[in-house]
Amino acid sequence: MAAMSPQGLLEALSAVADPRKSRGVRHRFISILALGACAVLSGARSFIAIAEWAMDLTPLLRAKLGIGRVPPCESTIRRVLQRVDPDVLDEAVSAWLAACSPAQTGRSVFALDGKTSRGARCLDGRAVHLFAAIDQVSGVVLGQCAVDLKTNEINAFGPLLDRFDITDAIITADALHTQRAHAEYLFGRGAHYILIVKGNQPSLHRQLRSVPWKQVPAADTTSNKGHGRVETRTVKLVQIPAGIAFPHAALAIAIIRTRRPFARKRVSRETVYAVTDLTYDNTTAAELADAIRGHWTIENRLHWIRSPGVGCLSHDVA
Prior knowledge:
9 strands; about 325 residues; alpha+beta; about 25% strand
């Protein structure tokens, strides 16, 4: 495992090409990249904040980042970061963070989802929409990419996962990515999936709704209190003898969410369906329930902290 250190970060960033011409260069390209990454990880939310963070560094820390006595100014940092290839930079930083993460036991579970960054804009004024993959356990962002206005997250699914190893990992995604092509792609990569089923797959959704779920015993039940209510989640699993109308699907899943507010007697109940290629032989109800519930890790650990501008320092000019 790589050490969580400036030297480790500098080594990872060496894969990013310097877009500048050699004439007139005063600051090392790799040092500016490291400076930007460390400042954002420390809470900087603008180019000015990055420059101020650099000014506050001790001589020792500046030396470790390869910065001279006078750090780069805000305009230099801005010009350099806006010219960087965002996908190459993202791959380098994500690989470094993943290498620094503690070793895990058991099967990896990766959540995929997209979010429009608050306050970030491209040159044409449109909002920046980022599609990301996050490790549910460690919270490390394994990769992210900007989704072009002329396309959508569906087309970014494979290219994003191509960046890292997903062998034997479980991929969770919302109903938008319940696509037959995605299932075939994951099967070809040796990965597994848990995909939510809604109206965009009408035949599959009708098949799952027609299952006599009331006769299926609960495989896993959990409860928690919060936000003024008690929420109970019940997971039911069934293997449909006639087969499931989705590539490589082995088990149909029903997640029944029951919410009981403290202040009212009214109880709400919602049933969500999903499919997975995992079988009774290579998974458990508890593992599936944890993966489905853990999908919201990407909302809690990543999406809600998307901040203006800095969340897309290089994407804002894509």
